[in-house]
Fold this sequence. Notes:
alpha+beta
Amino acid sequence: xxxxxxxxxxxxxxxxxxxxxxxxxxxxxxxxxxxxxxxxxxxxxxxxxxxxxxxxxxxxxxxxxxxxxxxxxxxxxxxxxxxxxxxxxxxxxxxxxxxxxxxxxxxxxxxxxxxxxxxxxxxxxxxxxxxxxxxxxxxxxxxxxxxxxxxxxxxxxxxxxxxxxxxxxxxxxxxxxxxxxxxxxxxxxxxxxxxxxxxxxxxxxxxxxxxxxxxxxxxxxxxxxxxxx
Length: 229
């Protein structure tokens, strides 16, 4: 084991230096987010009560976690009408702000469960469509707490592409190598975490006239399905 460490240590150091040099010499991509999230997500919907919640009140977050994740913009907005509840939680990081592995840990599988929710169903890379628009594949789960079950669709967008969530440990040199293998050399794309939750299923939401405004706002964030050239 000691011999293995001695043999691999120089390779890891050279790799780390190469990554550092790349980050130093090559500029980060340009951010696509032009407007505040609070202005992109609907602020008024006829007949609906809309409330912006403190991020610390969301299952994903807390005052400590929000500071740790170092968002460039974030919003937690709740829409309610006649017993129907729709929640939108969105976090945004500028290009190069955080690693994929930090943002990738920002998931209901971790944060919600830690906060007392039980996962009743979990599906990966689920097709998500609304009318003629195809969205990037979503992560899906049903989470329950205190008798309330929520259908949760969420996306981790990296440079406009969604990635399936994996539970990753603290970033390190080996983790960086794994990220390069998965995502390519440029690890500084902008990132979104987008979560759509409701006590109603998606088919019921699609029948609501106001859902068009919500879906269109999500498309403005870059959730339109990207096709390979």
